[in-house]
Amino acid sequence: MRTLPHPHPEDFDLATVLHALGDPVRLELVHRLARDGETTCSPEGLSVPRSTLSNHWRILREAGVVAVRTSGKTRLVTLRRDALDTRLPGLLAAVLDELTGGRDG
Amino acid sequence: MRTLPHPHPEDFDLATVLHALGDPVRLELVHRLARDGETTCSPEGLSVPRSTLSNHWRILREAGVVAVRTSGKTRLVTLRRDALDTRLPGLLAAVLDELTGGRDG
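Output (structure tokens, whole complex):
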């Protein structure tokens, strides 16, 4: 089992987090994580090549937006909601409001 | 006088706004606009080439983050605070909290 590096919340950088969130596919991944909780790193119904998806997860993980853990042969991903809310208060809430309310309403 | 195109708030796209904000130089420009109000498009003390700066302003304008108007030979830039607050509530506030409180505190 490999443990991937994750930044400490104190090291979160605003520009890096905003850049990580500033992509439609990565926003869709964040939206699913917020809705579904922990998921595999190969979510269904996304027409994105595996290598591209892997790159998106890396950008999100390195920015501090998601945590990735390995369970057997599976990688499982969660949203680092508490860390983001503590370090950058209000940011994730504003993004998720738009992803949920904005799309449905 | 040329009038540059600006998106209507209804057309603001979350990923595009986050991408526009997700760069250290563009965040610094937004920080200055929030602090100083309307400024010229060539702020002092930024060691950024003029063409690069022009590109940053274009990205911010096209996303809806700033408004640019021409006065004589000068271009003046403002933050579209009301439009952002209306269309993406809480987002700009969270970013500015970090830019001001986060840096000073």
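Chain B has five helices and three strands.
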